[in-house]
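Hello,

Our lab assistant flagged a job as stuck in the queue for most of the afternoon. It eventually completed. Since we weren't sure the result was trustworthy after the delay, we are filing this so someone can double-check. Below is the sequence as submitted and the structure that was eventually returned. Let us know if re-running is recommended.
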Amino acid sequence: MAVNNYAPSSPACLALVSLLRVAAASAQVVTGAHRAAAVLPVRGTLGRPSQIVRREGEPPLPDGLIRFAARLVRSGSTGGQQVGLSDATASAGAKGLAAVPLRVGASQGCLVAASDSRRVFSQAEMAGLARVAQAAALTMGEVQALLDAERRRLGRALHDTLGQTLTSLIFAIDVLDENLGSGDGRLLARPVRAHALKAVRETREVIDTTLTPIDGRETLRGIQERVQELSNSGIAVRFRNDLGDQPLPDEVAECVYHVAREALPNVRRHAHARHVTVLLWCNRGRIEIVVSDDGKGLPRRAAPTTGWGHFGLAMMREHVEEIGGTFIVQSGAREGTRIIARFPVAGVRAS
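-- returned structure --
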């Protein structure tokens, strides 16, 4: 398992946090240390370097001592005879220090135990510390396998329930269409069938993303399809992509597509716009998707059940902010609406 792209509230991140907490507590037990910590570097939301640290004991081990222990691990010096080697150790009040590597997937952190008394950790204690680190790595691998299995189960459940129901609905519409003759009823049935087909396609997209996260190319293709659908409805749409084929972090790609998938149909349903612009670009080191229209604008107060006025916007905002982005809505009566989602992503530039 590659440890990267952890959204703060994702199941994998929550499981990792709990696992590190247990590892730190276990490190105290097997070594008799007064304090302990488990730390793992990760690539956090939006691809930014980050780390998850869990501390046990009082006062908690300071960051300086943890960084010193991480350097010991990287250099190969992981024994328990590091007394006096670091100002950080002394300032933390620690007189005995031990650290072993903690590997989860491709990421290496460390498991640290510190004693407030002047002593050397025994070979048995060091072996116990190493076993805790190994058990943590194995457990996280099992957790990831369970999460993958649950995503597959969810995909199958959607296919067998909602997917089958929608397919049956299309068959029923076809039977109804055949029995309506050539009157106005058939004209009314056609858009119903079109909406049902669209629901089937969107359900399949959800199923696919439970199995394989959407990547940058799929994001661009999905946005282009939504733009074409809006254009087919009679609205003039201008789509501009300044990013080219540059890869985006998976969670950013998925979120950009979510914004487009939610915002564009709502323009057609609620905005009464004639022109829409969709812009995907890099602005001052930030990826932005901007959807703007010349419609009637948003009402000052919208009912909670109104997709355009409240619920749809709330879902977009939640999705964007969950991964550390910024969500902005600019609107005024008869001035149209502009939706902006911004994501700071290093290394991406306008093409």
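-- support follow-up --
The delay was a queue issue, not a problem with the job. The result is valid. Confidence is low (pLDDT under 50) at residues 1-6, 78-85, 302-309. Strands lie at 35-43, 49-56, 96-104, 107-115, 236-241, 275-283, 286-293, 326-332, 336-344.
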